[in-house]
Design brief:
With 204 residues, the protein is an alpha/beta fold. Helix content is 46%, strand content 22%. The chain has seven helices and nine strands, in the order βαβββαββαβαβααβα. It has a five-stranded parallel β-sheet with strand order 2-7-1-8-9, with helices on both faces. It binds guanosine-5'-monophosphate. Guanosine-5'-monophosphate (5GP) is lined by residues 15, 38, 42, 73, 75, 77, 82-84, 102-104, 106-107.
Length: 204
């Protein structure tokens, strides 16, 4: 897939680092950006809405979409399936400057194999493992087992940080959002410069 007008920005992190909040803030800060809505078989959380946060589907439906090759990538996480619809990218990369993908390391790996140009990956780290532990226990205060299972998989996810183009530590939320947003704006400028150089060289 060749993307000329648009950047694909992958954002990954272990659970509890604040990726969803950061990605949503980045979307507000970057003009003409779109946050791809994934498909999942997990149940919606209290504040989540179908077709806004995820396309929530049954396992049967997910497997049907998989058979129909509707996903550009898919992964299994915490016993649930997650997938990025090809249509989410296709319908948005023409009209957007940036399409954000909030996906895990498996998805990031697969997308990078399929999209070579204008695709950058960002990995968010917690300031420390003990802070991550506190955040996860707070988030899942009613389910300690879930908090510890998320912590366990967070430790596994951390192993993949080195596969990413850019690494940021989410210590202070605003600082982290501002730094990433500046980096993305620089990448947009760089892409546009290259695009205009291409035109100039063509005419030489
Ligand atoms: P959660 O259930 O907490 O919303 O997400 C769990 C993990 O699945 C997160 O790391 C999230 O980024 C990842 N995820 C969400 N959507 C997708 C997707 O479409 N593909 C892949 N590979 N991972 C996803």
């Amino acid at each position: 897939m060749v993307l000329d007008n648009c950047l694909i920005i992958i954002i990954s992190s272990p659970s509890g680092v604040g990726k969803t909040t950061i990605t949503k803030r980045l979307k507000r800060k970057i003009n003409k950006s779109y946050l791809s809505i994934s498909c999942t078989t997990r149940s919606p959380r209290k504040n989540e809405r179908n077709k806004k946060d995820y396309f929530f589907v049954s396992k049967e439906k997910f497997l049907k979409y998989k058979k129909q090759k509707k996903f550009i990538e898919k992964a299994k996480e915490h016993n649930n399936f997650y997938g990025t619809f090809k249509s989410e990218l296709k319908k948005n990369y023409k009209k957007s400057k940036v399409v954000f993908l909030d996906i895990d390391w498996q998805g990031a790996r697969n997308i990078r194999k399929k999209i070579k140009d204008n695709c950058y990956s960002f990995f968010l780290l917690p300031p420390s493992l003990s802070i991550l532990k506190k955040r996860l226990i707070k988030r899942h205060s009613d389910n300690t087992r879930l908090a510890f299972s998320r912590l366990l998989s967070a430790r596994k996810d951390l192993k993949y940080w080195d596969e990413y183009d850019f690494i940021y530590i989410n210590d202070k939320l605003n600082t982290c959002v501002n730094e990433i947003s500046k980096k993305i704006k620089d990448l947009i400028i760089e892409k546009d410069k290259r695009k205009s150089f291409k035109q100039i060289v063509k005419k030489l």
